[in-house]
Amino acid sequence: MTQTHTQHYKREDGRAIELTFAEPENAVRGGLVVLHEADGISDGVRLLITSLAEEGWLAVAPHMPLEPKQDDVLAATDITLAWLVEHGVQADLLGVVGFDLGGLAALVVASNRKLGAAVSVGGQSQGELPALVEIAGKLTSPWLGIYGDAGDELAAADVEKLRDAAAMSGVVTNVVRYPGANHRFDADPDAAVEAWQRTLNWFDAHLR
């Protein structure tokens, strides 16, 4: 079974961060930065990392502040991308994925960095991070947004505004809404399977 590992990574310029990662057993298809939810590096994050590794991706999660600002997200991602490049991943095979707070963080990254692909699963404006619609209009990386509308998730009208904003960015985007699902898809296993497959297909299509 694929295992996660945690490493203190320090750059020559003094920048440093804790990273939790999992490596594929066979050939590496590319590298994915996994941005964690508000609970930090939880069991759910580790499961996501190992699941991506089992699909052939070198998946690595930077340990970010639990209430990050935009600069925190971008700094953590930049260091993690450098780690992936040092581990042999080509620049056009780099992507980012996150859920809940990490979904918002992934959208921030996809609007400020040019990567091969990005995926956000849930996440809405909160704390020190900008509004979703404001960010989506500035996308610079191909982006897939997956949202439910249960509980505290985005309302249908908000998802439509997000879709329209993303479409104006000039890069390839897709926004998918699952009625009755939350960002974890706990209550709808079928939607969970489909959302996971959409995520894998997005990376398959754009990171090659």
From TrEMBL:
Bilayer-crossing regions: none
InterPro entries: AB_hydrolase_fold, Dienelactn_hydro, Dienelactone_hydrolase-like
Keyword terms: Hydrolase
Annotated ranges, domain Dienelactone hydrolase: 69-206
GO molecular function, one term: hydrolase activity
PANTHER family the record matches: ALPHA_BETA-HYDROLASES SUPERFAMILY PROTEIN, CARBOXYMETHYLENEBUTENOLIDASE-RELATED
Stated name of the protein: Dienelactone hydrolase family protein
Species for this entry: Amycolatopsis acidicola
